[in-house]
Write a structure and sequence with these properties.
The protein has 208 residues and is mainly alpha-helical. It has one domain (7-207). Helix content is 69%, strand content 2%. The protein is built from nine helices and two strands. It has a two-stranded parallel ribbon. Helix 3 packs across helix 5, helix 3 (40-54) packs across helix 7 and helix 4 runs parallel beside helix 9.
Length: 208
Amino acid sequence: MKINDTSFIKLFALITMIIDHIGVVFFPSNLIFRIIGRVSFPLFAYSTFIGYKKTSDLKKYMFRILVFGVITQPIYMTLFNKGIFDFNIMFTLFFELCLLYLFDKKKYLIIPFVYVLLYFLNINYSYQIMFLVPIFYYLSNNLIYYSLSFLLMNVILLLNSEFLNIFSIFALPFMFIKTNIKIYINKWFYYVMYPGHLLILYLIKVLL
């Protein structure tokens, strides 16, 4: 699986994430919004993996994600009634980059400590990223092993009572479809849209 153009994947992930958040805020009893939204995180995580492979400056890449995670946090907490130690998805992607770097540099003694940290911290999708990083890193060039591992991850999540996350399996085909939407979207658009769409949803909620 060698898809380096993630333009379509990121755009599709953004749209499904917004649908998911609309469901959480305005239609909490309608599961269809949440089901659609389950494909979002694996696609963002995969795009971050490709970004890690392509970036010429990992420190700047990690810094951007961390800064927008901090910017988003108060909006995220307010909109979803989260506590100060309930961290948004940007922090999850930051830890993904940390783990990818550790796997890349064969820092195998440090990796377990990061996993323990992810287990105890209340970070959005932390369990998924613990599975996805080794799947991306070691199996992304083997269609069969990659697909089976992705399926196994979802079964484990299901057994762990994370029912809705089983629907993230539908993200898998999008990681194999080669697309070229021929629409240039600046990378900053996605960074800004994360806190931006949450702020818009909050303002609509207040006005209603």
